[in-house]
Amino acid sequence: MDFGRVITAMVTPFDEQLQVNWDQVEPLINYLIEEQQSDSLVICGTTGEAPTLTDEEKLKLIELSVRYARGRCKIIAGTGSNDTAHTIHFSQKVEKLGVDALLIVAPYYNRPSQEGLYQHFKAVAESVNVSIMLYNVPGRTGVNLDAETTIRLSHISNIVATKDCANTDQLTRILNDAAPGFLVYSGDDSNALPALSVGCQGIISVASHVIGKEMQSMVKYYLEGNIQQAAELHRKLHPVFIGIFRVPSPAPIKHALALKGIQTGGVRLPLVRVSEQEGQFIQSLFV
């Protein structure tokens, strides 16, 4: 499975009443594929505000995304939760919608042991036939999916990749010992180039909503051996990588999209829109 180098974790567009704006889904997908050059899209991930979407909303959003992508990019659907039984039930439903892979987050709040994490992912993988990408984001889940556990999981046939927000030390350990062909993606925009330098496949990005073309250029420079140009572009983009997480995501990136004329609405509570001052700061990143 080739998910490409720059994957966008897509926001969910809302209307003024914070209901899913179904009419905006296709234009957003077209924009991300055609203008920002996304190789794949993650639907209903953290950036898509999955915690505040109903299962019915998620299923419709994923179904529409597969339809509107029309094979132009891979569709990866977030189906994980902190309940193994629910994750299995929902993943089986989503598999039928024709997605290319499932993104399964490490169970949050429960704080399972490494053996518990292994058994959780193993049970989900055995319940479906579609490819699975692990998702390790300790800052949100309260638990780290250790390198050793990821390596162990990489030997399950349909667990084909991981999105890992850990440091390059952990990414390197995974790359050294994972099963052949297992793909490692950084989940941290500011770590995109360092992750490539140790052998990662690419980045699952929030910033690529607005600087996806530039990120593709950075990757291209690096892969062609133009390290200095890649590094210069990384440094140029770095304020955006950091700035869009100055307040809780995805409020900043939705504001940045609005500045470009792409309307995706606000965010659902407990998240809130950026303040006027925060909005001015975000605007300053693109001047």
UniProtKB/TrEMBL annotation:
Record EC number: 4.3.3.7
Q: Which reactions are catalysed by this chain?
A: L-aspartate 4-semialdehyde + pyruvate = (2S,4S)-4-hydroxy-2,3,4,5-tetrahydrodipicolinate + H2O + H(+)
Molecular function per GO:
4-hydroxy-tetrahydrodipicolinate synthase activity
Tell me the SMART domains matching this sequence: DHDPS (SM01130)
Keyword Cell membrane present in the record's keywords: the answer is: no
Q: Which CDD domains match?
A: DHDPS
Which family is this protein grouped under?
Belongs to the DapA family.
Q: What is the lineage of its organism?
A: Bacteria, Bacillati, Bacillota, Bacilli, Bacillales
Q: Which residues bind pyruvate?
A: T47, I204
Describe the task this protein carries out.
Answer: Catalyzes the condensation of (S)-aspartate-beta-semialdehyde [(S)-ASA] and pyruvate to 4-hydroxy-tetrahydrodipicolinate (HTPA).
Q: Which InterPro entries match?
A: Aldolase_TIM, DapA, DapA-like, Schiff_base-form_aldolases_CS
Classify the source by domain of life: Bacteria
Which pathway, metabolic or otherwise, does it act in? Answer: Amino-acid biosynthesis; L-lysine biosynthesis via DAP pathway; (S)-tetrahydrodipicolinate from L-aspartate: step 3/4
Q: Where in the cell is it found?
A: Cytoplasm
SUPFAM superfamilies in the record = Aldolase (SSF51569)
What is this protein called in UniProt?
4-hydroxy-tetrahydrodipicolinate synthase
Quaternary structure, from the entry = Homotetramer; dimer of dimers.
Amino-acid biosynthesis found in the keyword field: yes
Q: Which gene name belongs to this protein? A: dapA
Q: Which UniProt keywords apply?
A: Amino-acid biosynthesis, Cytoplasm, Diaminopimelate biosynthesis, Lyase, Lysine biosynthesis, Schiff base
The active site lies at Y135, K163
According to UniProt, where does the site described as Part of a proton relay during catalysis lie? Answer: T46, Y109
Q: Which organism is it from?
A: Paenibacillus chondroitinus
